[in-house]
Amino acid sequence: MEKPENQYPFLLACRKQPTPYTPIWLMRQAGRYMKEYRALRKKYSFLEMCKNPEMAAQVTLQPIDKFKLDAAIIFSDILIPLEPMGVEFEFAKGEGPVFHRPLREMKDVERLKIIEPEEEIPFLMQAIRIVRRDLEGKIPLIGFSGAPFTLASYMIEGGHSRDYTLTKGLMYQNRPAWDLLMEKISEALIRYLNAQVRAGAQALQIFDSWVGCLTPGDYEEYVLPYSKRVMDGVNKSVPLIHFATSSSTLLERMKQAGGDVIGVDWRVDLGEAWTRIGYDVGIQGNLDPVVLFGPVDLIKKEVKRILDQAKGRPGHIFNLGHGILPNTPVEHVAALVDMVHEYSSRKRNSNTQIPNNK
Amino acid sequence: MEKPENQYPFLLACRKQPTPYTPIWLMRQAGRYMKEYRALRKKYSFLEMCKNPEMAAQVTLQPIDKFKLDAAIIFSDILIPLEPMGVEFEFAKGEGPVFHRPLREMKDVERLKIIEPEEEIPFLMQAIRIVRRDLEGKIPLIGFSGAPFTLASYMIEGGHSRDYTLTKGLMYQNRPAWDLLMEKISEALIRYLNAQVRAGAQALQIFDSWVGCLTPGDYEEYVLPYSKRVMDGVNKSVPLIHFATSSSTLLERMKQAGGDVIGVDWRVDLGEAWTRIGYDVGIQGNLDPVVLFGPVDLIKKEVKRILDQAKGRPGHIFNLGHGILPNTPVEHVAALVDMVHEYSSRKRNSNTQIPNNK
Prior knowledge:
The first copy, chain A, is an alpha/beta fold. The first copy, chain A, contains 16 helices and 9 strands. Helices cover 49% and strands 11% of the residues of chain A.
C-alpha cells in the first residue's frame, strides 16, 4: 500500500511543501528507553543487532508500532561503514566505541579500503528492504550515515573525545594525510548512502555530530569541501537532512555544504536559526532531549515555543536536538508526538500558513 | 613598585581604553604543560597545592617568570568555595572531580552553609597577598570563581557531565530547590569574590564553563538572574570578565547578566561576537587551545586572524577559548605571547586605532 511521495507529511516537509501538521520523528527513536529494545539488548550485543537484518528491522519498527511517528529511521550505527574500510572497533561496556588501532599517520590512511556496500554491508541493505516491506507504505524510511568529519574524528581519536586534539593535530600538521582521509571517507559515504537509497531508503540524514568543536574558519577549510562532495554525490531523488550539534556558528556554512533540510540542536532558537540559514531550505529540530524527562507541562511549553518559532512555515520537521536519552519516560515520548501533531494542526487551521516561496 | 592602574595594558583593555599592544593572558596558564608545575605535582595533590598559600603563589608565578604575560591569575580551582558550603569532593586520578553526595533534593540544598571566605578559605586570600607582594606591581593579578550554573551543575551531577540530565532535571522539576540552590551559590560567590578583591585581586573572572548546554530561553529564565546577582554584588572597583564556552547563542544574554568584558571560545568568530554583544563591553579570546600544538605558522595565521577581527579596537584581551591543554609545547606558548604583542603593536603603529566610544 505505497502512497505517492506527496502523501507523506515528512517527505513533503523535506521539500518545503505545506503539510496538515508538523511531521515528527526522533533521533535514536529505536533505543534503550523502550522496554522492547532493552529485552533484545539483554540477549544480543549492539553490533549483533545492527548486523542481523531481521533484528535491525524489528528494532526499527518498535517505536513505529508504539508512537504516531511520521518517519522511521533504519536501526544502525554511523560506524558501520568503517569496518569494511579496514578500521576495527568494538563497543566497550558503558564506554562507547573503542578503536584499537586509531589512524595517526599517512600510512594508516593509505591502508583504508574502498567499500562495496552491497557486498560488504548486505545486512543493512536487507534490513532496509524488510522494513520497507513491513511498513507497507505507512510512513517513509530514513537511511543515514555519519559525516566525514565526525567519522574521521572517531578513527583518529579512537573513540569519543573531549578536545579533539588528535583530530585537529592531523588536520593542522599533516594536511596530505587529512585530505586523503577525508577523500576516502567521502567516497565511502557516497557509495554507502546511494546503496541505502537503492535498497529503499526514502530520505537520508547525515550526522556531523562532533563538528561543533571547530572554528567556523576550520570548518570551511578542512571539512566543508568534503561534506559538500558527499552531498553532491548522493542520489537527488531522495531528500537529505544535514545535522550537527553545537553548530550554531556553522549554520550558514553547513547550508553551503548541502542538504534540503538543516538539523539544529537546542542551543539555538529555531526561529533565529531558520532566518539565518534562509527559508529556501527546511529546518529540523530542536527540543532539548532532557526536556522529555518532564514534567508534561514543560514539554508542552517547549513544543509550543518551537512550533511558534517555526510559524507553521512549510519545511519544519520536529525532532529533538540530539538523540533521545536512555532513561526517557516512554509515556512522555507518546505525549510529545501527539502534542506536536495536535498543536501544529490547530495552528494550521487558525492561521493562514506562511507560504515558503521566499 | 606599584604602577597606577592606567599603566597596565590588561586593566586598560578591561576598561576599553587604548593600549600600545593587545594584552594577553591564558586560562589555566599555571598548569601541567609546564615542567616546573609537573615537578611540584609529583609531590603534592592538586588540592594540596591549592590549599598551601606559598605553593599556590609559587605556581601562580611560574608562567609569569617564563612568558611576557600581561596578567597573572591566582592558582586555585572553581570548586574551592564548595567545601565550606558543606559539599565534599575529591579529584579522582584522571577523572576530574568526584562528589560523593551530589545534591538531588530540597533537603540537600537546605543543608548548604553560608561561607565566611576570610575565615574558611584563608589560604586563597593569603596566596593572593603573597603573589601581589612578589609581583612587585609588574602585572595585575586576576581572582576568579565559577558562575552559579556551572557550580550547581557540578554539585548536582557529582562531577563532569555529558547531558546535564540531573541538573536540568532539578531545574525543571523542582524549581524551589533550584532557586534556593542558585541563591545560596550566588551569595557565596559574592562573598568569595569580594574577599579576593579585599585580599588584592585587581580583576575578576567568572567561569560559566558549562552553561552552553542550555537553550537561550532556559539561560534567561533559570540562570541569568543569578549570574546577574553575583556580578551586581561584586565590588565595582575592579573589572570583571564573564566567560563561557559553547555560548555563541547566549552572548547577548551574558552581557545582560554583566561583566566589563565577555570571554568567548573559538567556536564563534571574535569579530562577529563583538558586533553582536556591542562595543560598549570588552571581549576576551579566542584562540582554539589545540592550535597551540602547532605548527608555528598555523599559530601565527590564527593570531593574525583574531587580531584582524578585533581591528585594534580598545577592549580586546587576547586569550585562548578555554584552558590551555596539558601537553601544549611550552615554546609555542612563548611564541604566542610574543606574536600577539608584536603583531598588535605593529598594527597599532600602521593604522589609526578605532576609538571605542560607540
